[in-house]
Inverse folding.
């Protein structure tokens, strides 16, 4: 019987409005009523992930930044896996070389050097996931959404990460040209030591310490609770979800997942626009997966 469910957020738990549908929330509550713990495993930072959960009335443990920072349901930090400063400098050099906009998530929050680029790239992501929208509307939605998130704009990222009290947890690069630009940069970054390079969309690459992966983090949480991989269910849609889809005995890929990601999951559910998470949870309960 399933005792722990870990779900990705973007493209998985969240709908087109970046919220959690009533059907998904209802299925989560049904699982919790049966004694099954639900948690999220996201590439987002804590402050980016929590608003959607709060709005849906869901209080749960959170694997954030692809596993670089894990919190219990009360917001207490459980463990951290950061990137070495010298390695972080090397990553930024490669991203600059390819003219790729980047953001750095740290123990002190998220930092960016270019506000306009942040809005532009988020708008591109919205326009891709919701093609019925005009780009002008996507820009407006991006501006409104990003205004709600905590981010600090600075002039020099390298000076910031050299500060003794700053720990680099994740670096994410964005390009509207997608793999054409991101692919070569990713290849170079993979040559640096102790890194995991994944993506959560066609327009980004996400760089973490090699120990900061969703599968490792889910396994860590499960072990703390005395739960085996045979009692864990994971749900995701993109490449940064593969490690947890491979680890858990019960794994679901979303209907909208990348084709290669689906190959790593045992089951397929509906898309994130069709309450796929809720469908997967209820199926797991009904069929005692």
């Amino acid at each position: 019987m399933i005792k722990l469910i870990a779900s990705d957020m973007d493209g998985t738990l969240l709908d087109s409005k970046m919220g959690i549908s009533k059907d998904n929330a209802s299925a989560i509550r049904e699982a919790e009523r049966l004694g099954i713990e639900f948690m999220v495993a996201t590439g987002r930072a804590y402050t980016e992930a929590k608003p959607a959960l709060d709005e849906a009335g869901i209080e749960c443990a959170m694997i954030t930044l692809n596993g670089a920072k894990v919190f219990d349901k009360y917001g207490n930090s459980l463990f951290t896996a950061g990137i070495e400063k010298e390695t972080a400098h090397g990553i930024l050099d490669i991203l600059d070389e390819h003219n790729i906009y980047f953001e750095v998530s740290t123990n002190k929050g998220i930092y960016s050097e270019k506000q306009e680029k942040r809005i532009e790239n988020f708008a591109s992501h919205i326009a891709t996931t919701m093609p019925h929208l005009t780009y002008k509307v996507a820009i407006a939605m991006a501006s409104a959404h990003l205004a709600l998130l905590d981010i600090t704009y600075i002039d020099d990222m390298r000076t910031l990460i050299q500060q003794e009290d700053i720990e680099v947890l994740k670096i994410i690069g964005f390009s509207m040209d997608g793999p054409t630009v991101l692919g070569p940069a990713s290849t170079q970054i993979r040559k640096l030591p102790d890194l995991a390079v994944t993506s959560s969309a066609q327009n980004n690459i996400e760089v973490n310490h090699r120990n900061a992966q969703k599968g490792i983090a889910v396994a860590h949480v499960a072990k703390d609770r005395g739960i085996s991989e045979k009692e864990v269910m994971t749900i995701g849609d993109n490449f940064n979800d593969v490690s947890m889809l491979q680890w858990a005995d019960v794994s679901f890929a979303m209907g909208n997942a990348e084709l290669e990601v689906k190959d790593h999951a045992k089951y397929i559910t509906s898309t994130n626009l069709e309450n796929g998470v809720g469908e997967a949870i209820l199926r797991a309960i009904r069929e005692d997966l």
Q: What stands out?
A: DSSP finds twelve helices and 14 strands in the chain. Residues 135 and 210 are 36 Å apart (CA to CA). The first strand starts at residue 4 and ends at 7. The first helix runs from residue 9 to 13.
